[in-house]
Every structure is written in structure tokens, then in C-alpha cells.
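Data follows
____________
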Amino acid sequence: MPTIGVAIAIPEPWASELQDYRTSIGDTTATHIPTHITLIPPTEVDEAELPAVIEHLGAAAAGVEPFDIHLRGTGTFRPVSPVVFVMLAEGISACEVLADAVRRGPLAVDLHFPYHPHVTIAHHLDDEALDRAYEDLATFECRFAVDAFSLYVHDQHAGWQPTHHYALG
């Protein structure tokens, strides 16, 4: 069964900047993970269900208007999870509305944690590296418009690959 994810891609130049930072502190998984805000975490979907998923995502996108994101500062999920991330200062509620729209029908998945939109910058590293990421990017800031999201399929060798893009509104 393919493993899929649904996410908002972070645009350039910030996507490369954050991904390069993530790899520079030793998070080698970043080379196979485009910089993003998750809407649906990695989920196995039966191959026969993919057409219904694709159709559902198109309908979900049509029902949500474009919105703005303002990323600023860092946060962490420690001690619950060894993650440091860049926080959303604007766009949280719009991401929640969009995530709720995509997590219906064939993608009605249970989440292990409450939904909290963010951009991961360090994951599963030692405390020293996590502390460093938290401090190094504490002043990170950018703004961008969100007018689409993507369906990603995980490839064992290439990592997460976008296969479909969905325009909002």
C-alpha cells in the first residue's frame, strides 16, 4: 500500500533555507522531506482508494479560500516528542480549516496528537542539537500566500514526491 501525505509546501527561498539548516544540524531525513506544513501525516492508503482520495482533495481545495502564512520564531513539542519547529504567527486557523476539510471522507484519519500547524526544523536529534535549532532559528521570519497544497507519495529511495497539486478557492 502506498504511503501518502498532504501538505502545504513552503515556497522558495525559505524552503531551501530551512531544509539546508535542518540537514546542517544532522537531521539527515530532511534530504527526502520537502519543507512543508502537514495537513495529513503519513498515511497508508489502498491503491484502489487513490482515485477517491484525489477527487476528495480537489473538492476540499475548492471549498477553502487562499490565505496568508506568517512564520516567526521557534517552538518545540518536547518532552512529548523530540521536535523543534518554526511557529505560525498568522494562518493557524486557516490551516486548521484546511486540515479539517482534507481529513474527511477517504482521509478521515485519527491523529496521534492534536493538530498543530508548524514547520519542522529538527526531529529525533539529541537534546543539544534540538536546543541549538531552537536558538538558531528563534529570529527566523517570513510571510507568504498559500493558494494551493499537494498530495505527496512516499518513495523508498527518493522520499516524499508531490504527485498532485490542488489550487484553493
About this structure: The chain has one domain: 3-167.
